[in-house]
């Protein structure tokens, strides 16, 4: 199931907890707080802890407090951007594209991690080695976990990939669920709660490192083509001079941990057009994002 435009703009309780001070003052006044939204790819406390060094660096560069916020799901971050409770956010590629249909936002930076050394990643479909699943064809009749309807590597790309391989995800699984996070998908496969699941390659690596799953117990059934890394976005209505300062601050950050991505090499500039490949994948699923209501 793909979230509708109406669902994307519904209020999310967690988003409402963003501090009221996280709003821009009039142009002639000085901004007091910059809020940065994070997607829930792992435990919210871990996300905030892993992002604190980034928040500190940005605060120092901008000369104002910078506060992280993790919503309960992708839609929570999008809704907080739309309602101007967030100024900047880190979104998944597909959640960003969906977000552009309901919120006036724009991608401006993309991270390169030390481990990956790249600004793209892959989606995997994984299964437990004892499941007997080795190919996409073996998935028929099995239980399957996607991550979130708005997840690029946890839903959009694997669903399109399965359809390209001749498997209908809406009919050919015995049961389909949304786990809510990549970590939860890894744990579900590891503990044999589901037969197979979609997950981002770098988050699987992190889950293995943290002991949530064992590499030797898992098999990779499918791997996607390269996906552009998750963008950092801002609201377009921020003052132009401030946006320049924000982008410059991000591009100066190096050699610190960032969100779920691990240690950074740094950020690179990006723009909305870089995510047209995501829109193309949506078209492969016959989704017209502009007409979703």
Could you walk me through the main structural features you see in this protein, from its secondary elements to its overall organization?
By secondary structure, this protein is α/β, with parallel strands linked by helices. It has 2 domains: 158 residues, Periplasmic binding protein-like II (D-Maltodextrin-Binding Protein, domain 2); 101 residues, D-Maltodextrin-Binding Protein, domain 2 (3-Layer(aba) Sandwich). Helices cover 31% and strands 21% of the residues. Strand 1, helix 2 and strand 2 form a beta-alpha-beta unit. The longest helix has 19 residues. It is globular and about 55 Å long.
Helices, by number, come to 9
> What is the annotated CATH architecture of the largest domain?
3-Layer(aba) Sandwich
* Strand line-up across the major sheet: 2-1-3-12-4-13
Coarse morphology: globular
- Rg estimate, integer Å: 19 Å
CATH topology of the largest domain: D-Maltodextrin-Binding Protein, domain 2
Order of helices and strands: HEHEHEHEEEEHEHEHEEEHEH
**Through-space gap between termini:** 14 Å
Q: What percentage of the residues does DSSP assign to strands (E)?
A: 15-25%
Helix content: 25-40%
| The CATH homologous superfamily of the largest domain | Periplasmic binding protein-like II
CATH domain class name of the largest domain: Alpha Beta
Overall pLDDT confidence: 85
